[in-house]
Specification:
GO cellular component, one term: membrane
Helix content: 25-40%
InterPro entries: AB_hydrolase_1, AB_hydrolase_fold, AB_hydrolase_sf
Organism: Pseudacidovorax intermedius
Distance between the termini: 18 Å
CATH topology: Rossmann fold
GO molecular function, one term: hydrolase activity
Protein name: Alpha/beta hydrolase
Number of strands: 8
Radius of gyration: 17 Å
Number of domains: 1
Length: 273
């Protein structure tokens, strides 16, 4: 895997460090770019080698990054809890600033997992000219009881079992990463969070993948996308939980390849610096 690097962005008047790494397989220097958006407790390292496998198999470039508060990016300040609009801020403020800092001007494919899938949807709705297409794994459109229940179980595992120690391998500030995500998802005000109306303007190709054994969401999430975004392709995956790229990686890569096929036939010539 390629080494990680850091970019600086200005976010709400503060300089924020963004951990990231590029993946450029041999011969793919001018291929489409896939930007990977991690889950609520994810990071560059927590993707492990999946982005490399996808990029090498499909012959595309990849850009993996850790959102502020995660991985080796600038931690969230203890006195700055996430708000109900935290995914909107990531989609409307952080991701545009990061892409600009990286000098990326060509439309990109967004590959988003869980919260990252929701952020990808919000970004595509706000910046349609910047997105070639979306591949979404277990995205959230609204809050379900099953989601809240398992996030409560995650809090118990963090407080009383080994989840904190396991996460500490991937985050410079594990408290920032876990508490930011867990506290807002369990906040009473967040039960009303819903982005169904926000995504109705999306017109790019969309592939939405949902594990049939997902403990954090049901098929209603991706079916809601298909109801609002014309032409959305749905892929329910048996024998798969909340992380299709870990549980069924070959199926995810194959389906992503079918989605990207038109782009691969007409790959843009410009590469980001």
């Amino acid at each position: 895997m390629s080494d990680t690097d850091f970019a600086l962005i200005d976010w709400r008047g503060k300089s924020v460090r963004i951990e990231h790494r590029f993946i450029v397989p041999p011969g793919a220097e001018a291929a489409p770019l896939v930007v990977f958006l991690h889950e609520g407790l994810g990071s560059v390292a927590m993707w492990k080698d999946f982005p490399d496998r996808l990029c090498e198999t499909l012959g595309v470039r990849g850009l993996v990054y850790s959102r502020p508060g995660y991985g080796r990016s600038t931690p969230r300040a203890a006195d700055s809890p996430l708000g109900v609009d935290f995914m909107h801020r990531q989609a409307h403020e952080v991701l545009p600033a990061f892409l600009a800092a990286m000098g990326i001007t060509q439309p990109v494919w967004l590959f988003g997992h869980s919260d990252g899938g929701s952020i990808a949807l919000l970004f595509a709705a706000r910046h349609p000219q910047a997105v070639a297409g979306l591949v979404l794994l277990a995205p959230h459109l609204f809050v379900e009881d099953v989601t809240v229940h398992h996030i409560e179980l995650a809090r118990q595992a963090y407080d009383h079992a080994d989840l904190r120690a396991r996460l500490a391998r991937y985050h410079d500030d594990v408290v920032s990463a876990f508490r930011g995500w867990n506290d807002i998802w369990l906040a009473p005000a967040f039960r009303a969070w819903n982005i169904e109306a926000d995504i109705e303007g999306i017109r790019c190709p969309v592939l939405a993948i949902q594990g049939l054994d997902d403990e954090y969401g049901t098929l209603a999430q991706i079916e809601g996308i298909a109801a609002r975004v014309p032409g959305t392709q749905l892929l329910p995956v048996p024998g798969c939980g909340h992380s299709p790229h870990r549980d069924q990686p070959e199926q995810v890569i194959e389906a992503t390849g079918r989605m990207l096929a038109p782009s691969l036939r007409g790959a843009p010539a410009a590469a980001p610096r």
